[in-house]
């Protein structure tokens, strides 16, 4: 057992750091570090930089354009890019449908879609949840009926992130409703420009517009866009959700936000002294920092086991729960740190081009919205309560 | 970065586990507590024969040459089996003070005695006013010719009732709370000016209140440098805390397993109570605390021998804080999920929970450690202890 990074790992960190310093666009990094709105093009520019370097798909086999990094290297990469303010890459192509197509896709599907996921030419989104199917995803009702060489899709998807940016959607549909609800589900790849698709934004409590409803009315999908066998969509859906476990903890981003929290707490004054020296607030930060250290060590334990080809132990299943809770606690403390200046709500002022007066310190403006927005982390990707059900039943055998 | 055990570490883990599984039953422990025994000589001898008492020392003293990770493996097994033996006091604390701080000739006398199990020692350090502050030493040592005269009271000296020698910290300069001016002395327990009152702690550990009424010791009894013992004490306290963290992980793992088993077997309303979602979620939260604790115990074990005092202190305070909280959480939840049975003295569970609660207190509880962690500054890290050549000759 050795907790120090090897010389090769240290050298890798240096290489990543140098690349980020050179290629991460400064304006994008500033938006991320200051929690301002980002646009598709901001993410796209970073995606292209990684693509040109050959670093865009660490999770993929090399034969498909992936990078042969082990889990520890990927952790280092995540940490370095997050701390520099790199935007989160869109996961729907790279982390979700890409690996699914590699495992289940036809040769034609692989040739058609994988190169454009890598290059960033095609943006994907996810069609999983429905208004009546949240945690009980298998109860989904969106129908796909085979007519000749086309499926005709009717129904409604919801909580679709960045569907307004996407060219393609991978969609769970019901092709048979005669058996158990997990049977008769099929995964279809659908072009977002197909007639009959309508995307309507859902405004979230922070004022954001990143999630959508997607409506399908007699949408025609070529039969060759079926992934795997008809009726096997549930197996594929589970494969997709279980892919990539360590990244889900968000340690790199949380470490960056902890630094930002300390920065704010050292600027804010209480009775003429920095807030960070107030024993009560200081200890709240300390408790969070210690929990983050424990999460990071747990991620490294999982990564190290994965690097050696071992199956992850029970520690892997806790990453999503603790990772999301820590992300939320960071936003809470950041909001608490600015005190009354959490209150002013001027979304326009978060933009870089805002020329009007800001109320309170510059860093204060987006923090409350971010606190509200980040409530999503314990809900998406399987609510933390569903995660606990899964662990209790599958890991603990209860 | 590598979290797998070496072959040697794996063998150490297997052998301590096998030995305790076979020889250290809960009934044995219960009878020891009932009969006010601090330890079992037979078990101590067995641990010595396995080489466990020499784990942190180099082979020239008969040791195993291990570091924080090896200590962690032993302590985790000690926790899992709720072992009462004075491993922490004799091997980790006094052994650590001697190993890092003593002169070579002192080591040659003391360490082989520890390793072969013939010598039991305890560290008399804390006092009524010190609470968790390691630097608060009020006991005085003054020179009379070339003899040191020790005057004062020490409290909560664990395992001292069975010790033949104590290492006593005393102030040779300055005032209580000063970092400089603390020195360490070896005192024989049969010394006539040394008094004491023996009592049990709530986890069954035997402890002693120590009274030093003009105890006279020669210059050869000094461990380390006069006035400069604090960095040594701090370093060994960190080793002890890392060891306690590992013990706590062993305890928590056992408590968690007992609870999981209980949920699967206890039937109410016609089904195992583990089928109830509200209990499932609480069990998962116990698992989360356990795995976080395990991660932090590994971190503390991996950093406790670091030459960088800031890095060492950061890992140890964080681990002790998190594990103190996790131990409380898991202990309390385990009792609750066992219902009325969790309240009984009959079940081993309560005895595990009490040891966990004791570990939180030792060297400072979660709140104290968190505050220590928060106040650490990279540039004000403790100065390192430098081993003196022939320290005792300075007098």
What tags apply to this protein structure?
heterodimer; A: 398 residues; alpha+beta; 4-stranded mixed beta sheet; 12 helices; globular; B: 395 residues; 4-stranded antiparallel beta sheet; 11 helices; 10 strands; 48% helix; disordered C terminus
Notes on the structure:
The complex is a heterodimer of chains A (398) and B (395). With 398 residues, chain A is an alpha+beta fold. In chain A, 44% of the residues lie in helices and 15% in strands. Chain A has twelve helices and ten strands. Chain A has a four-stranded mixed β-sheet with strand order 1-4-5-8. Chain A has a four-stranded antiparallel β-sheet with strand order 2-3-7-6, with no helix packed on it. A two-stranded antiparallel ribbon of chain A has the order 9-10. In chain A, helix 4 (71-84) packs parallel to helix 8, helix 5 crosses helix 7 and helix 8 runs antiparallel to helix 9 (279-307). Chain B contains eleven helices and ten strands. Chain B has helices at 7-23, 26-34, 41-49, 68-80, 87-101, 104-115, 230-265, 277-303, 309-337, 348-361, 366-375, and strands spanning 121-124, 140-144, 147-158, 165-171, 182-188, 194-200, 206-217, 222-223, 267-268, 271-272. The radius of gyration of chain B is 21 Å and the shape is globular. Chain B is of the alpha+beta class and 395 residues long. The relative contact order of chain B is 0.12. The longest helix of chain B is centred in the middle third of the chain and has 36 residues, at 230-265. Chain B is 48% helix and 15% strand. Mean pLDDT of chain B is 95; it is low at 389-393. In chain B, helix 1 runs parallel beside helix 4 and helix 4 (68-80) packs across helix 7 (230-265). Chains A and B meet through helix 9 and helix 12 of A and helix 7, helix 8, helix 9 and helix 11 of B.
């Amino acid at each position: 057992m050795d907790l120090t990074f090897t010389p090769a790992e240290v050298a890798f960190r240096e290489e990543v750091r140098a690349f980020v310093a050179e290629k991460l666009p400064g304006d994008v990094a500033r938006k991320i570090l200051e929690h301002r709105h980002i646009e598709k093009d901001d993410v796209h520019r970073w995606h292209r930089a990684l693509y040109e370097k050959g670093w865009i798909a660490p999770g993929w086999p090399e034969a498909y354009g992936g990078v042969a990094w082990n889990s520890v290297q990927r952790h280092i990469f995540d940490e370095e890019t997050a701390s520099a303010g790199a935007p989160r890459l869109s996961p729907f192509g790279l982390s979700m449908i890409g690996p699914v197509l590699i495992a289940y896709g036809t040769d034609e599907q692989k040739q058609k879609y994988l190169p454009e996921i890598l290059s960033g030419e095609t943006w994907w989104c996810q069609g999983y949840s429905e208004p009546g199917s949240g945690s009980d995803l298998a109860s989904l009702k969106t129908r796909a009926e085979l007519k000749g060489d086309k499926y005709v899709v009717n129904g409604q998807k919801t909580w679709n992130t960045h569907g307004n940016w996407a060219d393609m959607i991978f969609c769970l549909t019901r092709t048979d409703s005669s058996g158990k609800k997990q049977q008769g589900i099929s995964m279809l790849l659908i072009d977002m420009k197909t007639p009959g698709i309508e995307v309507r934004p859902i405004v979230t409590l922070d004022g954001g517009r990143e999630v959508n409803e997607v409506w399908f009315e007699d949408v025609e999908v070529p039969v060759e866009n079926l992934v795997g066998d008809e009726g096997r969509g549930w197996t594929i859906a589970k494969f997709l959700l279980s892919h990539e476990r360590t990244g889900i903890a968000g340690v790199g981003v949380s470490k960056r936000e902890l630094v930002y929290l300390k920065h704010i707490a050292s600027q804010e004054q209480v009775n003429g002294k920095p807030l960070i020296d107030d024993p009560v607030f200081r200890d709240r930060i300390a408790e969070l920092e210690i929990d983050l250290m424990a999460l990071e060590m747990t991620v490294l334990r999982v990564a190290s086991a994965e690097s050696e080809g071992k199956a992850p132990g029970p520690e892997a299943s806790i990453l999503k729960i603790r990772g999301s809770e820590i992300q939320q606690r960071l936003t809470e403390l950041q909001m608490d740190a600015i005190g009354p200046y959490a209150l002013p709500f001027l979304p326009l002022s978060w933009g870089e081009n805002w020329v009007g007066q800001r109320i309170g310190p510059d860093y204060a403006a987006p923090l409350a919205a971010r606190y509200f927005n980040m409530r999503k982390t314990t809900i998406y990707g399987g609510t933390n309560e569903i995660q606990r059900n899964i662990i209790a039943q599958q890991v603990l055998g209860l | 970065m590598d979290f797998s055990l070496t072959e040697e570490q794996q063998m150490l883990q297997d052998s301590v586990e096998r030995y305790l599984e076979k020889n250290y039953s809960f009934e044995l422990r219960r009878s020891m507590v009932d009969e006010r025994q601090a330890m079992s000589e037979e078990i101590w001898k067995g641990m010595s024969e396995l080489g466990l008492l020499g784990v942190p020392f180099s082979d020239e003293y008969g040791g195993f040459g291990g570091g924080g990770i090896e200590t962690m493996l032993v302590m985790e097994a000690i926790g899992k089996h709720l072992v009462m033996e004075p491993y922490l006091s004799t091997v980790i604390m006094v052994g650590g003070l001697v190993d890092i701080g003593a002169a070579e000739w002192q080591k040659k006398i003391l360490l082989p005695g520890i390793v072969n199990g013939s010598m039991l020692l305890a560290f008399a350090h804390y006092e009524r006013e010190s609470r968790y502050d390691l630097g608060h030493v009020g006991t005085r040592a003054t020179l009379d010719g070339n003899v040191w005269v020790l005057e004062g009271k020490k409290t909560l000296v664990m395992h001292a009732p069975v010790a033949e020698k104590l290492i006593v910290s005393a102030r040779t300069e300055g005032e209580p709370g000063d970092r400089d001016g603390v020195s360490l002395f070896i005192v024989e327990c049969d010394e006539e000016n040394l008094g004491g009152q023996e009592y049990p702690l709530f986890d069954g550990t035997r402890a002693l209140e120590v009274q030093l009424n003009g105890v006279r010791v020669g210059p050869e009894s000094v461990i380390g440098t006069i006035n400069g013992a604090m960095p040594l004490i701090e370093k060994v306290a960190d080793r002890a805390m890392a060891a306690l963290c590992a013990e706590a992980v062993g305890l928590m793992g056992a408590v968690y397993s007992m609870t999981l088993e209980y949920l699967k077997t206890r039937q109410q309303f016609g089904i195992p109570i583990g089928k109830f979602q509200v209990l499932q979620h609480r069990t998962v939260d116990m698992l989360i605390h356990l795995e976080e604790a395990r991660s932090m115990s590994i971190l503390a074990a991996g950093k406790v021998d670091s030459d960088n005092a800031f890095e060492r202190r950061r890992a140890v305070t964080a681990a002790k804080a998190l594990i103190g909280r996790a131990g409380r959480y898991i202990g309390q939840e385990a009792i609750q999920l066992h219902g009325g049975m969790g309240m009984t003295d009959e079940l081993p569970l309560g005895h595990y929970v009490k040891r966990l609660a004791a570990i939180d207190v030792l060297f400072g509880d979660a709140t104290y450690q968190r505050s220590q962690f928060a106040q650490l500054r990279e540039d004000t890290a403790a100065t390192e202890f430098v081993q003196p050549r022939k320290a005792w000759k300075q007098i």
